[in-house]
């Protein structure tokens, strides 16, 4: 299926070269990795470049509100058991970034591609993927993004004619709605803690009933499909009923769910679960997330949480009290400029932890914690917060640009 | 109502709780408890009946289809109407504000009948979506400090004769009609486009609702330090061009 049987056209080659040159200039100017600008230049010279680059690859697309960067890494590691992989591992997940990543992998057999939710349908059309992994959908940056249910609807329409194998989370009604227009779906019981975007049936608008792990609409026939793969505690259950232990360096239930989906994807390409899961152990930190760094004689674990569902999953993986928790929140363009989502997060789960608050929007968070009845300290910067905490492990949770700020400060 | 109790009803969180407006419930609940009130909070899903004996009803913002469904179910249920007839206080935000009026435009692009509890009519704005920080002066009759909030809406709301403008906009859009007004109210029913959530940035509104529900003129003061700091920051932000 894969292999470089069909060489790139002269125009495509020129576009790749020009893109690489632009990326190099951007890097030299100190403006990041240059992957996005490189991809933009290349796509301008050859708008079909993404499709052309993908033609030589078995492509897997990964999309979700949360966990797509990590899952992309896990799938890439698993598929390396079967051949070279090219991937947009750093999370540049729009068409320009994807083009740039693929242009760098001329010898690869597989392309494992994280795709921004808004671009999934378009990229799926362009690159004719063999498989698409859909993890979860929940509210995120509502001041500029599409409504969550509308996004599911767009996926459903965009994926309707796709020949790809869809590997989808059976526990998220919005994902099931998006995926069930496709002919070939592998359902994975990957779980989802956050439920507040799917109380209303995506099909008919009826009120969703959610007894235990199950869910169904009380009015139409829309209900949870029977999964063939499942996350069960610390194990992946495969379609034959065999249980495979999950051993990850990455913490938390959500990453076990990501590993389960990744194992299902790997199996579709002939990589057995045992091999896939063993390879996933190699993944340590993903673009700085989950990294543990020494700073001012403390051990800081850096956790990224961008939206209510992400914060909820993060609370379930942090060390218990009295481990201190530092939280940093910004509301710059890349974060979404509305901080109302803080009120969808149940901060009472942090009771007992010493809490330290910083970031551009620390006052929004301070009011949120005050109303939750928690004690907290408002700090001007990371150093001050770290110095107020006792020596040892500190959990640091931040949203997108706040996370980048923290990484810069700790030299990560 | 007994002297020391407050029944707080959160209307349809399954449909109208998309923009953190749950915060309004949390702030009212917290500030009532800080005044020693025995707060009973009832979250009523859209397949349940709206109780008619609540003191304060809060309704949040939501996406377009849930808004249509909420209006249909509230009209069919009838409980909110009876509660208002009983003198209950209602505070609504954005999509919730629109459905309390006579009409709004639904996700199918149709004019849909609202509950008619506020004398307003909402249409879809022709211009760009209104998104950003807002600063406005609340009707002086209510005796409250300036209103700060975050708006995110396409709708435009016209006030009828019996609806009073809740606030006059200094920075931002509000109702978006061009008359500079934001929100609407009558004696017991309030509507606003402000998220934030609005009570987190304007705890005095929470206090106003509690006072109206208890029929008292004053409440014991509570610690407002973080709310005040946040207010100052957001008011400054609203007055600066983005």
Describe the structure.
Chain B: This is Lipid II isoglutaminyl synthase (glutamine-hydrolyzing) subunit GatD. Chain B: Substrate binds at residue 129. Chain B: Its EC number is 6.3.5.13, 3.5.1.2. Chain B: Keywords: Cell shape, Cell wall biogenesis/degradation, Glutamine amidotransferase, Hydrolase, Ligase, Peptidoglycan synthesis, Transferase. Chain B: Pathway: Cell wall biogenesis; peptidoglycan biosynthesis. Chain A has 412 residues and is of the alpha/beta class. Chain A folds into two domains: 10-280, Mur-like, catalytic domain (UDP-N-acetylmuramoyl-L-alanine:D-glutamate ligase, 3-Layer(aba) Sandwich), CATH 3.40.1190.10; 292-410, Alpha-Beta Complex (Protein-Tyrosine Phosphatase, Chain A), CATH 3.90.190. Helices cover 35% and strands 17% of the residues of chain A. In chain A, the strands form three sheets. In chain A, strands 2-3-1-4-5-6-9-10-11 form a nine-stranded mixed β-sheet, sandwiched between helices. In chain A, α4 (68-79) crosses α9 (253-268). The longest helix of chain A has 19 residues, at 10-28. Mean pLDDT of chain A is 91; it is low at 1-5. With 242 residues, chain B is an alpha/beta fold. Chain B has a single domain (5-238), classed as Rossmann fold, CATH 3.40.50.880. In chain B, 29% of the residues lie in helices and 30% in strands. Chain B has helices spanning 22-34, 64-77, 79-85, 95-100, 198-201, 203-214, 225-238, and strands at residues 5-11, 38-44, 56-59, 89-93, 103-105, 111-113, 120-124, 130-138, 147-153, 155-159, 164-171, 181-185, 189-192. In chain B, the strands form three sheets. A nine-stranded mixed β-sheet of chain B has the order 2-1-3-4-13-12-11-8-9, with helices on both faces. A two-stranded antiparallel sheet of chain B has the order 5-6. The relative contact order of chain B is 0.16. The chains are: A alpha/beta (412), B alpha/beta (242). Chain A binds chain B through residues 139, 142-144, 147-150, 196, 199-200, 205, 207-208, 218, 337-344, 363-364, 366-368, 370-373, 378, and chain B through 13-15, 17-23, 26-27, 30, 45-47, 63-66, 69, 131-132, 150, 152, 195-197, 200, 226-227, 229-230, 233.
